[in-house]
Every structure is written in C-alpha cells, then in structure tokens.
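Limitations
The structure tokens in this dataset are predictions for the assembled complex, not deposited experimental models. Users should treat interface geometry with appropriate caution, especially where small molecules or nucleic acid strands are included. An illustrative entry is reproduced here so readers can see what is and is not provided.
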Amino acid sequence: MEEKNSANGNKDTALAALLAATAVIIGFIIYWSDEIQAVREMLELAYG
Amino acid sequence: MNRALLGPYPRTISVGAVIVFGLAFALTDARHTTWEALLPLFEWMEATSPGVISQTYGAVFALVEAAHLIAMALLGGAVLVADGRLLGLILRDFSVSRVLDQSHRLFVWSLTAMILSGVFMACGVALKVYYLNVFWYKMLALVTGVFFVFFIRRPLLRGDVENMNPQLLRLVGIASLMIWFSVAATGRWIGFSG
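Predicted assembly:
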C-alpha cells in the first residue's frame, strides 16, 4: 500500500513537472517571438 | 487531505489549476482591474524610507543596484550549473543530486539578496516601473521561476534522479533556463526603459 502511494506520488511529481515545463516553454516561445516581431516591425517602420 | 480532495495526482491538478487561472487572468479584464487597484501601493512605495533614500541619494541606489546585479549573477551561475548538469552538459563526473543540492543553497541566498535589493530599487522608481509593461512581465517570470524551483524542480529531484526519465530532466532544465533568461532579460530591459 505504502509502495503504491510512493509510486503514485513519483508519477504525480513527474506529470506535474512535464505539464509545468511544457507550459513554460510554450509561454516563452510566444512571448519572445512576439517581442522580436514587434522589434522587426519598428525597424521596418524606421528604415523601410 | 490533498489526496482525498484531488485524488492520486494533487500536484498535477494544482499545476493545471494554476495554468488555467493564469490564462483566465491574462485574457480577461481582471488583469486591468488588478493593475489599476495596485496604483496606491506603488504611490505609497515611493513615499516610504527606501523610496525617499533612493530618490535622494543616487549613490545609495547605485550601490544597491550593484548588489542586485551581483546577486543576479550568482543566481544565474547557480541556475546554469544546476540546469547544465540536468542537461548533461557540465560536471558529468559528479552526481546530479550533489550538484543540485550545492547549487540550490547558492540559489536561495542569491534569490533572497536579489528580492531584497529589487524591492529597495523598485521603491525608488515605483511609478516609473508601474507604467512599464516589461516590469510586470519580469514579475510574472520571477513568480513563475520561484514556483517552478520550489514546487516543481525540487520535489522532482528529491526522488531517485539517476533512474528518472532523462528526457523529462532535460525538459525541466530547458524550461528552467528559459524562465531565468526571461527574468534577467526583462530586468535589464527595465534598466533601459523610460
């Protein structure tokens, strides 16, 4: 019973890490690509 | 208690709930309402002793900023060492748990120094940072980073790291690097804004 709880706990921690890491990576890509795009648009406005 | 309420996956459900709450907050008017409600706090911060001192004595602000940058460098070093080991890029002769335990101590001290000096500096320029979008992104990245380290990475690596899925460890290492890169980059961006 205790072993099963421990296995479930490890699986829970691993799943939580997978979910959080995926969310962070997606958020990072969206945020920084948006910022880079904004800079490109400003450069285009300034220099054509 | 948690297990009774959330079943066998309380941590995963909590992380999912935080993500859903964060998305709902970002995509609704709640974000703007909260921002407006925080204005009196930032006005008060400028009137506090740290706010008055850092506005009056530029040298004090510069000294605290130097401490803030040193703390950030130390924190960056701790993150690079820990995540570099997780990714299998450095210190491969040492066990993952040993490298992570040692770097975590440095991480906690430098994070504390960074937050204390950061609050002092924010008091001096409270209204300036209040109107900067990038300041709020930095706060979001910082809160995410602290949450990620103490609620995700530490509990995960307290287990049997050597027998853990290496792909998961790499994913966690990459995510951690991305968060702290964002904290550092948005922090420097504040310095160059306004």
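Some entries come with short summary sentences. For this one: The mean pLDDT of chain A is 87.
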